[in-house]
Amino acid sequence: MKTKVAIVKEKEKEFEIQEVEIDEPKAHEVLVKVVATGLCHTDLSVKDGILPTNYPVVLGHEGAGIVEKVGSHVKDLAKGDHVVLSYGSCGHCRPCMEGDTTYCVALEALNFMNKRQASDDNIFQGNDKKLNGAFFQQSSFGTYALAHERNTVKVTKDVDLKLLGPLGCGIQTGAGTVMNTLNPRAGTSIAIFGVGSVGLSAIMAAKNAGCAEIIAVDINSDRLQLAKKLGAIHIINSEEKDAPDMIEEITTLGVDYAVEATGVKAVAEMAFRTLANRGTLAVVGAPKGGTEYAFDANELINTGKKVVGVVEGDSIVKVFIPRLITLYQQGRFPFDELVEYYAFEDINKAVTDMEDGKVIKPILEMS
Predict the structure, then answer these.
(1) Is residue 111, in this structure, part of any structural domain at all?
(2) Do 299 and 183 share a structural domain?
(3) 146 and 26 within one domain
(4) Are 61 and 42 in contact (CB under 8 A)?
(5) CATH (domain of 223)
(6) What are the distances in angstroms from CA 367 to CA 35, 68, 162, 361, 364?
(7) How many domains does the chain have?
(8) How many CB atoms are closer than 10 A to CB 309?
(9) 201 and 102 in one domain?
């Protein structure tokens, strides 16, 4: 069948919309009519060659839509179901079998390098040149997406489906880093460095977790004000004030937890300096490959501080995404405050607005 997709033909090129053929679902796959897709910084990093893929390629990894067809072995999904699409995992390696699917040994192949999990066939057909897909096992910058049953999450029909796509990556990454990885005790302190969609989601999660001191650090004053609205107790513009000094003034001994969501070396190292003894820094922001962060080894040894990397908020998607939706329905996780909607055909404008900081989380509507 035909689908309209946004293609990146070469590194750093704009998206081009084109009609192509998409394959039928294999035994464990699901064909989804896409309603809307979030635009994530990961899409932009891949488009610009900072993160790997094969060109030409159809990106998109925060899809939300309605099941059109299911493969013969799919039992828990059916035509008409509302679904959110998330990251791919193999299900067979040791991390997957132990419940740590975000650290699947095939993570890069299945999410970035266009390996279709259910088949060696290309998901897009009828093109003069091979068009790569299976990005995050979905390539949801299109009117239809072919996903695997493992990364297709059935969701309630009581919430507007076009809002839900960003739960598949950016929103769950920020929220999960706090709720799943750090799991802070009520009354503790946390600092969030970088308040884009990931950082703001972490702030909402910290509020739900009962953190007593929630500190937002960024250089964008408007986003800091939104952070305060969403749960930050203190906001620090690090261009105007020294963040470590301010955090020491607020907490005396430093924070129990910190989340680094910028991917900037200097910010990550600054975040580490704000930790109290036995504090934990969660590194979420993805810098360019080869970036090295410097922490004094003796400081780690003598203070009990910890540094952990986090992928996708350590989320088991079929459990965590419905939980976030429930919190949203209860008014406790208002991630709709982060989004702005664009027509699919305006994808390049959405990219520009996101890069210019005019919008936090663009969502592309397919119709």
Answers:
(1) yes
(2) yes
(3) yes
(4) yes
(5) 3.40.50.720
(6) 7, 16, 10, 18, 9
(7) 2
(8) 12
(9) no
**102 and 223 both lie in a single domain:** no
Note the maximum CA span of the chain. 64
The helix/strand/coil state of 200 is: helix
The H or E element that residue 64 is part of is strand 63-70
Residues 162, 187: one domain? no
Tokens of 182: 């750090």
- Residues of the domain holding 356: 2-168+334-365
Instruction: Please tell me whether residues 160 and 37 are part of one structural domain.
Output: yes
Residues counted in the chain:
367
Q: Of all helices (H) and strands (E), which one includes residue 108?
A: helix 107-111
Nearest-angstrom CA–CA distance, 63 and 138? 8
Phi, psi of 73 (to 5 degrees): -100, 0
Q: What is the tens place of the pLDDT at every residue in 247-264?
A: 999 999 999 999 999 999
CATH number of the domain where residue 93 is located: 3.90.180.10
Residue 316 belongs to a domain? no
Note the pLDDT tens digit of each residue in 143-201.
Answer: 999 999 999 999 999 999 999 999 999 999 999 999 999 999 999 999 999 999 999 99
The position carrying tokens 């990894």 is 61
Q: CA-CA distance, 30 to 305, in Å (whole number)? A: 44
Q: Dig out the tokens for 237 from the structure.
A: 């513009």
Q: Which residues contact 126 (CB under 8 A, 6 or more apart)?
A: 20, 21
pTM > 0.85: yes
Contact criterion met (CB below 8 Å) for 261 and 309: no
E strands in 155-248: 189-193, 213-218, 234-237
Task: For residue 138, give every residue at least 6 positions away whose Cβ sits within 8 Å of its Cβ, in sequence order, or none.
Answer: 32, 60, 61, 63, 85, 88, 145, 146, 147, 151
Which strand ranges, in their side-by-side order, compose the sheet holding 189-193?
234-237, 213-218, 189-193, 255-260, 275-283, 306-309
Do both 156 and 13 map to the same domain?
A: yes
Same domain, 187 and 295: yes
